[in-house]
Amino acid sequence: MQQFVAWRLLFCDKDRLYIFHSITIIVVRMRGINTLYTDIFDQSKESTPKAGKGRSSHLHKARNEALVSRYFYYGNFFDRKLSYEFIIKKVATEFYLSPVTVPEIIEANYNILVNLKKEQPTIKFFKDKWPHLVW
Fold first, then answer.
1. Tell me, what's the pLDDT at 130?
2. H or E stretch at 19
3. What domain of life is recorded for the organism (predicted)?
4. Which of 72, 58, 64, 65 lies closest to 135 in space, CA to CA?
5. What order do you get walking across the sheet with 16-21 strand by strand?
6. What angle separates helix 101-108 from helix 110-119, to the nearest 10 degrees?
7. 0.70 exceeded by the pTM?
8. Residue of 30, 31, 34, 27 whose CA lies nearest to 10
């Protein structure tokens, strides 16, 4: 007696075929050789965290702290008081940013500015912390 095997295609989804045979649904991958075991139980793909692309939050924090300090420096340590617009343009030029972006960064890091105002650091503090800048 010959057994007749009836396969019926249920549907296709991107790279898989779903085939029905009696009680079992079989998933056939059309690309690559991955089994149901590696699809479900292989943790190697999920366990490795993806490295974030683009900007580093650590470097952003350091840049923002230096930018706010520079803003504080220009506002406090000059004989003649500089105008707000001049200070914003100067800081924007030094950090290669738009003059619109600088006030946004200062506002987002307002706590650093408040701490500088409370501590009233000297120019030596800034020279020691950021020796690559001319204070």
1. 93
2. strand 16-21
3. Bacteria
4. 72
5. 7-13, 16-21, 24-29
6. 70
7. no
8. 27
